[in-house]
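Write out the bound-state structure for zinc ion.
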Amino acid sequence: MSKRSWARPVNRANRVRFRFGCGFFLLLILLTPTVRSATLEIGQKARSIQPGEVLLLTVESDEALTGVSASGFDRTFPFFPVTEHKWEGLVGIDLDVRPGSYDIAVDAKSLSGVLEKVHRIKVLPKKFPVRELKVEPKYVEPPASEMKRIQEESRLIKQIFSGVRPERLWEGPFLRPVPGEANSSFGKRSVYNGKPRSPHTGTDFRGAEGTPVKAPGAGEVLLVRNLYFAGNTVIIDHGQGLFSYFAHLSKFDVKEGDRVARGDVVGRVGATGRVTGPHLHWTLRLVETRVSPLSLLEVTQ
Ligand SMILES: [Zn+2]
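---
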């Protein structure tokens, strides 16, 4: 199951030693006990191992690592260095992942080669309840004249979420964008005016109209615009495939292309788009997995 590559330091220094004849053999004997396999240890932090959860994986080696990534759920999740010997990365379990055992293959590059190890996780079932909401009819059966706009917006958002910038822009713990309480709406199957619609892939936070919405982590603002269903929306690219999407805002405080630090105000709570009242909707994407913002808050603390 797990595979280790054996570190055999072959470098110029070794070749130079040939010139020293007998001395080389003496050196070889002295060096032999120190030649051993490099280790790769994997640690995990998670709120639970269930659909919609974020895992924080830690990879440690006795060798200095120059690059780490993890493959699982048909995706590759990039990692970032904490020290030379310790890297961390976020892995997302999408909302629709079926319960069962899954292998996450961790690849770590060091000067002596590539170290590989498989980390097996067991995804437990999660039941997402149904929520019934009453909204304006145009948000349930949009008029034909709006279909082109809706399709274009859906394509644009998909394209943004599919980007994986190699560098990580965020650092340290993520923070709550508004002080208000979050409800347990993430993953709920939504029924609008009696008609089933796609699952709710964000978390809703209480907040009065006008409450400042803070960037939960540093990043680059990729989108600031009014969308048909989401109303006034801001998307922040945190790097390495992680995006925050804030919907239903009453006002924008940033423009596309702005760099934001954690805690910078990006907009104000509002009730634009398909809503029942003012609140903040925060959707998260991690290498295209739909994951709960509350689980990200917890694993990065
Ligand atoms: Zn929402």
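---
The mean pLDDT is 89.
Helices lie at 12-17, 22-31, 147-161, 293-299.
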